[in-house]
Design brief:
Number of strands: 11
Largest sheet: 9 strands, mixed
Shape: globular
Structural class: alpha/beta
Strand order of the largest sheet: 1-2-3-5-4-6-7-10-11
Mean pLDDT: 92
Distance between the termini: 33 Å
Radius of gyration: 22 Å
């Protein structure tokens, strides 16, 4: 269950630039790419940046369809790399995660960071080749952008019945406004990428995505592979993965891996004796009903589920997990409260159109509950994930195509980079998915969490080398050994 990797935080910048990307173009069958000024406050420095809007049909093949806008930003290569044939590398099309993430609003912030910290501009920072960022249809700075203000949605599902009802009402409201909810999913975005190639005059492209981004990459490779030269998938979510079914067990497995790494170290094990068993007992208490913390505030099992998912996705959260679980067992729920401060980071209606069209039709509440039964840490995630099925039952996104749940078969060179610790996109999924790619390479990074290339310089260099020449094996000798200890953060308890 992918987190919003490559989805920058929304904020004042997103509000300020929304008007730049809504074209209101007249209806036409052909895709149109229009270059527009980038926001004046983007600190481009010595980088050349192009902003624009891709306008396409919402429903292809329908002469009465309306047109929709997709925001695009292109950072030109700082030092174009010339390959062995004497040709510059093709541009990289970047895919954000979620679904329901975004990219374009964060480009200015990223440029500003690189301008202020040039030594930290990593090897993937549009150095060798142009990088094209776009907000997938239905989100970000596009039109429409299907946000649901005030509704919380995490990777563990809606935290409350109120949020479930809010999602249904929000989706129904977009449908009432004329949004065709059946047209916001991976297969249709693949057609958008083909239209982008056509409208921008791109003969060849590379693909780079993280988390749910590889799910969209897989759709491009399935439905519109023409012109795709090479693909990088970071923390990949393959089409055959189950969004809800199996996720509680994956969260529990991530917790077990982390706590086992603690128990294997004398100091950490002594500080947190038998923590796995004690937390399982605590999880049973949460399953029995809400708990009131030392500050008098009451929290539910859904709140604990969101905490476990978010924490085991995050590098800092993983290092702090033993410390935070001790606090929770003792009745200090501040770690849960910290996670609960931001549970509106997705474009919620956009996420649900994906899940209801291409994920949940192939799953069931019964299989979800049965898989988690008997493992209290897994069972914690079942109530909130179950609500997703009720949301999908209340909206019409059209029939699911079985191909969207099938493993991909492709000979396009593809580099898979996965984290050892990942509750949503575990390495087992990566290994199985890669078997269908005739020209694939796989990296599994010890102690890493979701979003590997932003944590591991070794993985980032491998991605760059692969894009320079996808026919050569990437260097994995710089990866940490499988038995390298995980460094834990004890906070103030040291």
């Amino acid at each position: 269950m992918p987190r919003q990797l490559l989805a920058p935080l929304a904020g004042a910048l997103a509000v300020a630039v929304t008007g730049l990307f809504g074209s209101g173009a007249a209806s036409a069958a052909e895709p149109v790419y229009a270059i527009k000024p980038c926001p004046a406050d983007w600190a481009t420095g010595d980088r050349v940046v192009e902003c624009g809007t891709l306008t396409v049909d919402e429903t292809r093949g329908d002469p009465a369809t309306r047109r929709i806008d997709i925001a695009v930003a292109r950072i030109k290569a700082k030092t174009p790399f010339i390959d062995a044939m004497g040709e510059p590398l093709p541009p990289v099309v970047v895919f954000h995660g979620g679904p329901g993430g975004s990219l374009v609003s964060g480009v200015g912030r990223t440029l500003g960071f690189y301008a202020a910290n040039p030594e930290q501009a990593g090897p993937l920072a549009a150095i060798d080749q142009d990088w094209i960022y776009f907000d997938q249809r239905g989100g970000g700075l596009g039109n429409p952008s299907m946000d649901c203000p005030g509704v919380q949605l995490t990777d563990a599902g809606p935290p409350s019945a109120k949020d479930e009802a809010g999602l249904i009402a929000c989706l129904q409201a977009y449908a009432a406004q004329g949004v065709n909810l059946s047209q916001y999913n991976a297969a249709v975005i693949a057609a958008d990428v083909a239209d982008m190639r056509k409208a921008m005059g791109l003969e060849r492209i590379d693909l780079y995505g993280g988390s749910y981004g590889p799910r969209i990459e897989a759709a491009v490779m399935t439905h519109a592979p023409q012109g795709v030269r090479a693909v990088v998938m970071d923390s990949p979510w393959p089409p055959e993965g189950n969004w809800a079914v199996g996720t509680p067990e994956q969260v529990s497995t991530a917790v077990r891996i982390i706590l086992a790494k603690c128990a294997a170290q004398a100091a950490c094990g002594a500080r947190h004796p038998d923590l796995q068993t004690r937390f399982e007992a605590n999880a049973r208490e949460w399953l029995a009903g809400p708990k009131t913390g030392s500050d008098g505030k009451t929290w539910t099992v859904e709140d604990l589920a969101a905490f476990l998912m978010e924490t085991t996705y995050d590098a800092r959260g993983v290092r702090r997990l033993p410390h935070d679980l001790e606090a929770i067992i003792a009745g200090d729920f501040s770690p849960i409260a910290e996670i609960a401060e931001d549970r509106e980071y997705y474009t919620e209606a956009q996420q649900m159109t994906h899940l209801c069209k291409e994920e949940l039709p192939f799953e069931s509440k019964e299989r979800l509950a049965a898989g988690a039964a008997g493992d209290p840490v897994a069972e914690v995630s079942v109530p909130s994930l179950s609500r997703l099925f009720a949301v999908c039952a209340a909206i019409d996104v059209g029939a699911a195509d079985p191909v969207e749940n099938a493993p991909v078969r492709s000979d396009i060179p593809t580099l898979f980079i996965a984290a050892e610790i990942d509750p949503g996109c575990p390495p087992e999924l990566t290994r199985k998915a890669a078997a269908g790619y005739a020209n694939s390479q796989v990296m599994i990074v010890t102690n890493a969490t979701h979003g590997v290339t932003r944590q591991s310089p070794c993985a980032a260099r491998a991605a760059r080398d692969f894009l320079r020449d996808p026919t050569e094996p990437v260097d994995q000798t710089c990866l940490p050994p499988a038995d390298e200890p995980l460094v834990f953060d004890e906070g103030d308890a040291a």
